[in-house]
Amino acid sequence: AYLGFGIAQPLSTVLLGYFPANWFGLGESLPSGSAFDWRTLILNKKSTNRLLEKGQDYSKNLTQKVLVLRAEDDIWLTEKGVKSLLQNTYPNMKPTYRLIKQSESEKNEIGHINFFRSYNRKLWNIILKELNQ
To answer: I need a surface site. Which of 83, 111, 121, 127 has the fewest CB within 10 A?
Structure first.
């Protein structure tokens, strides 16, 4: 993580004016500000809480229901991490957790960034079903 977001991300972002995430297999390119926010999320132990310290933090005021999706094959987003985020950063939200199994994907592949790929279109029904309730 440090090599990518500690060295490559800031260097390439400063030189190019954006972060070419696709060069590193991390999805689409990111605008400079977003890239540095991701750097904070990844390298700072407080992660999201550190990012929220940079501006007005309303996270404790959120009391809505929320559908929290996690892919079975997502190596970055663990069950422990997701639950910690909801408990420590958004303690007043009312989460419903849903693990999406690889077998639910036509390509047997979801990972951290492939949920919205066209080959996973049928997975989008998970969200549509929740919105229609």
So the answer is: 121
Give the three-class secondary structure for 18: strand
CA distance 73 to 111: 5
Over residues 106-124, the pLDDT tens digits come to 999 999 889 999 999 999 9
CA distance 126 to 71: 12
**pLDDT tens track for 1-31:** 788 899 999 999 999 999 999 998 888 899 9
Burial (CB count within 10 angstroms: exposed 0-12, middle 13-18, buried 19+), residue 105: buried
19: helix, coil or strand? strand
Residues of the domain holding 67: 59-131
Residues 69 and 32 placed together within one structural domain of the fold? no
- Where does 72-123 have alpha helices with state H? 79-88
Split into its structural domains, the chain has a count of: 2
Q: In whole angstroms, what is the distance from residue 22 CA to residue 44 CA? A: 23
